[in-house]
Every structure is written in C-alpha cells, then in structure tokens.
Amino acid sequence: SLKVMRKARISGTDEIVQADDLLKFYPNYNDLIFVCIDEKCSVRMAPACIKKKDHRKPHFKKYRNQEHIETCEYAKLSKLYHQGKNQKLNKTEIKKIGYPSVFILNEDKLEEPTTFQAKYGNDDGVTGRGDGITKVYEFDGENVKFDKSNRVQGIDRIVDWYLGFPHNRDVEIEINSGRIQYRYFFKHIKDFTDPANLQNERIFYGRIMLSEMNRNVFDRYTENVFFKLLGYKDKNEKNVSNYSVKIDKNSISKHSLSRLKNRYNHLFERAFTEHKNKTSEQNIGLYLFVYGKLDEHNDTLLNVKRQYITCRYDEVRKTIIEE
Q1: In the chain, what is the greatest distance between 2 CA atoms, to the nearest angstrom?
Q2: Residue 134 phi, psi (nearest 5)
Q3: Which of 59, 156, 205, 253 could form a disulfide with 289 if both were Cys (CB 3.0 to 4.6 A apart)?
Q4: Are 16 and 137 in contact (CB under 8 A)?
Q5: DSSP alpha helix (H) spans, 235-282
Q6: Number of neighbouring beta carbons within 10 Å of residue 209
Q7: CA triplet 11, 51, 314: central angle to 5 degrees?
Q8: What is the pLDDT of residues 162-192, one digit of tens each?
Q9: Distance (Å, rounded) from C-alpha 255 to C-alpha 250?
Q10: Which helix (H) or strand (E) holds 47?
Q11: Distance between CA atoms of 308 and 119, rounded to whole angstroms?
Q12: pTM over 0.70
C-alpha cells in the first residue's frame, strides 16, 4: 500500500495544500490536522520531511495503524503516479489518470468557454469521467483549466505528463489539428545542439545556468525577460554559443507573468543554494520548458509564444518506449 502523498486536506477548512508549500504558507503546520483528499476516505495524514535539511521531498504520510479505504481514489491515483515513473502503464491506467491530448493555442477558441468556466471555475483539474472523483489531483499543476476531453490551454500539465511518465511518452497530443507523440513534441537543448533540429514550434527544454546572470531576470528589462541555458550550439577556446530564451512581456498577462516570476525566483534560489552548498541531488536540475520557436535572425534564441513557459526543479528521465 502507498504511504506517501504530495497533497492533503486541512481538516476543518477543507483547503487542499501541497506539502511543498507548508513551510512557506503554513508555518504553524504542526497545529493543523491533515486528512486524505478523498472525502469518503479522510484518513489522518502527517506532514513529513518539511524542513529543508531533509533530503527527501516534503510529503504527507498516513499513520501506521490506519489505512486508506479500499475505494480511496486519491490513493489509487497516487499509486499510479508512482508506478508511472518506472514502468509502462496500460490503457486503463492511463485513462484513469488522464493526460492532455489536445493543446489549444489561444488563437483557437475553446467551445463555450463561459459555461465551462461558470461550471468549474478555476478548479485544480476537472475530468468528466464518472469514476467517483470529480477532480484529478495532479501533483504540481498550476490551476490550468482541464476539460472533459483532456484539452488544455497551457503547457504545465503537458510537462507534468512528460516528466511523470517516461514509459508512456508514445501517447499523442493534438495541436493545430495535427497529432504528435509526446516524445517528438519535446526537444532537449543540451551540449552541441544543432539549430537545424529545432526548426518547428515545439516544447523546448533545457537546464538553466545557475549563475548571477539568471537571477532577478524579470526585473532587468522593461520589455523582455531573458534566460541563459546551459545547452549550446557549439563551443571553442574563445566562446560558447549558449541558447537563451526570451519572453515578450507584452504578450503575456500581468497575472501570468507575476505567477511565473514568483515560481521561478523561488525555484532559482533553491537550486542556486543547493548547487552552491553541494547538497543538490545528482540528477535534479532547474529546467525551463518553453513552447515557441527559434528566432528568425538568431539561431540560438528561443522566443516564447505568449504565456507558454514553465520551470521545474526536477529530474528529466530518459524516454523508454518498449515496442
């Protein structure tokens, strides 16, 4: 049985919280009572590894003498998330979790956006399947609206699937009425990456350089934000042609920009400190994920399309497709 959860509910207020956020937003977490998200289950949960000195990720765990109920949807989902890191899920399991299968760019309008929003508001993740749970509690989403047929209007959930299920990156996503497998939709920017391989609109990702150059990037220029990646086109004795990423501040809402800024600054400081103190885990890095395209005049500059950018301090596992 699975003991570790990333989220829990505060008993009394029913507010759903992430273990990662406890220290920052609930410093009095020791005075609170936490229970399982599934309301029918509601088994008591205890926060663990919340303080930064612990190497394991913050999480909630159940008490020794208590179990989730047999039908606990959250326990089932959590179990699948854990399995998905290391093995291929079957069709039924994939359907249970749900993954973004249509990426709607803002130029395509969602059908009846008003009724959808009125119905679900800014919910965490809504699926229309009647399997006893109305929300899919993904583990790190950014409140991106998620509708019945798994259509998304942002890249956070697409990135979540790519990171979380390396054995299932052969599922397809539809974009601009074309279909592409996840493994081909993502392009890794690393050492000696040839711009010729980055010609289409894709999700590009790469590690961010952990240097002063990438600190406070949101306040440096009025019109744009620039990030410098570790990956490069080529290098010689004199210089390295690193790739960089550019956000046009006018093409993104103030709300999205400030949310991205807070998230980035928080993750950058954490990654920077752990790197400096040599406490970071070997395979974990600070990554930028960007949907956009190469600049027409500069083949090492990636232009972000609108608000389609997110960052992760995480491990990106190799794609494994068992044919």
Answers
A1: 64
A2: -95, -20
A3: 205
A4: yes
A5: 254-276
A6: 16
A7: 95
A8: 999 999 999 999 998 899 999 999 999 999 9
A9: 12
A10: strand 44-48
A11: 25
A12: yes
